[in-house]
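Kindly inspect this one:
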Amino acid sequence: MRPRFVCKVGGSDVRRGFYSALVSARLTDNSGEEADALELTFDDRLNMIELPAEGAVLEPLYGYYETGVTSKGLFTVAGVNLDGGDDGEFVTIHARAADFRDELKERMTEHFEDTTLGAMLKEVFARHKLEVAVDGDLAGIEIDYEARFNQSAVGFATDLARRYNAVAKPAGGKMVFAKKGKAASISGAQLPVIHIAKRQCSNWSFDIEPRPRHAKVTGKWFDRAAGKMKYETVKTGGQGPILMLPHPFRSQADAKKAAEAEGVSMNRKTGSGSFTMPGRPSASAEADVIAAGFRPEINGKWRATTVTHEFGASGYITDIEVEAPEDQKKAGN
């Protein structure tokens, strides 16, 4: 099939000369707090490339002439790089997921009482006129008291995400707060599973790590009524000593959630790798990956952490970085 890349600026098609000068279009879809990124590089030997205004909104679409193209979201131009030398002259446009704006870095101190996680996040980001999509499994969590001390909106959301084993990141023109590994798109629809056969890959690389060295994780909290420190312990499914989280938490519930999140995080680190193959426009970070045809240690279920789509002289290539899912990666599972 014939690879195809389409880019829209402000919702409109670009001029024909855009594609004749395009050297590469690289999109990085991240599963963590880091914003998704788009990088467009052009041959500027005639100095005819028109530079976009900072803040211009781009919509990249990847796919094939025979099957159509898929939109990969909205991106805001953050800067332009100009290079020249013996190899020629180039213009590189850098963009990041739309609505990841500088005003979100404004620091504030405030507190919240008798609310829910979803309502609290919506209140924080409403000041920036930014919609928040909160995972249904997280939105209803009750918050008795929560303090935000000299933090940006993004920093506050990121800290909460670590506590509740979630991801806080801008995507699709809104701020997303979703449970890690849920494999759901921004709309809440299930992301398509990425099936990868060995014969489809141009290369692959894996590091298989030992099982977690901690059998349990403990979070501590101070019980004011009893006047003493108490502990919440959860099992990781691995073997080894207990891991004690260093900082105390406000309540029993917070201590337990933090211990659970750390246990899940350790499980995800038991293996990692990457696959490189012809372009897969439907592939997205956070989706489940099923590998087949490799040796037993690679075959089975993984989770996509970063998906890179690159269109250029060599065609359309997708690189998928993966890690073990929460239930741990075992040889042959």
Observations:
- The longest helix spans residues 252-268.
- The chain has four domains: 3-97, 102-179, 194-209+270-323, 216-268.
- Residues 102-179 form a domain with the Phage tail protein beta-alpha-beta fold fold (CATH 3.55.50.30).
- DSSP finds five helices and 22 strands in the chain.
